[in-house]
Amino acid sequence: MKTLRTLTILGGLVILALAIGFIFQLRLVTSLWPWPDGRLSYLFIGSILAAVSVAALWIGWTGEFGALPAGSLNVLVIAATTAVYFFQLVLQGGRPEMIPFGVVALVSVVASGAAFLWSRRIPLNDSRPMPLLVRVSFGVFIVSLIMAGGALAFRIPVFPWALNPDSSVIFGCIFIGDAFYFLYGLLYPRWHNAAGQLLSFLAYDLVLIGPFLLLFETVKPEYMLNLIVYVAVLVYSGGLAVYFLFVNSQTRLGS
User: Fold this and answer.
1) CA–CA separation, 228 vs 112, rounded Å?
2) Burial level of 86, CB count in 10 A (0-12/13-18/19+)?
3) pLDDT of residue 124
4) How far is residue 184's CA from residue 67's CA, in Å, rounded to a whole number?
5) Is the distance from CB of 58 to CB of 199 less than 8 angstroms?
6) Rounded to an integer, what distance in angstroms lies between the CA atom of residue 56 and that of residue 112?
7) What is the pLDDT of residues 9-42, one digit of tens each?
8) Confidence check: pLDDT of 58 > 90
9) What is the C-alpha separation between 21 and 12, in angstroms, rounded?
10) Which residue has the higher pLDDT, 213 or 122?
11) How far apart are the C-alpha atoms of 178 and 13, rounded to whole Å?
12) Distance between CA atoms of 216 and 82, rounded to whole angstroms?
């Protein structure tokens, strides 16, 4: 188990390095994205990778592999839906350059599926229940993510900037996968099935909140409502995470 913890931490550090690369638009890293994209889209990708890395580092540090199924399910859904889209671009769009991305997505499906089935058998060490406010919030997050993810998949504007149409679909897949991340916690409402999600959300929030607040100065009028709603979600989820991870005496980290 010690070796597995070490590998999980190393994996989290690699993902964190990729997150930093996307956040600061390092060409070596952004070239890994299937198509050229804009600054804000790269920032969003970096925020998602930061969220994944924090959850992996937390699981590796604590050894709480019983919390791994939620994250594995998240990756499984994202990988499966994006694989379908990549191969659709190949078969219907005549874009054979998408084959490697589809293959990577299929490999991720197998790996995340195996991780999900394996980790499902590991009991959680922490038996504390999930606080009611967190459970209610998770329910709201699930509905919101499914609605936003579905809209993005159909290329309906949700973000406060114009998206590359292909990126819109991929971001929709990410949101739908994230909905399953919170759904697993809601179905198995133990605190350690919430801590990872809240840590992920906090990392995501910290990456985006500053640039999004600055975006109020330049956002196009047709995207202003999207920006207001997005920032409201960031502020609420960030506040929820800070309170239960660092303030509440019954749930704060290290308690």
Assistant:
1) 34
2) buried
3) 80
4) 10
5) yes
6) 13
7) 999 999 999 999 999 999 999 999 999 999 999 9
8) yes
9) 14
10) 213
11) 21
12) 31
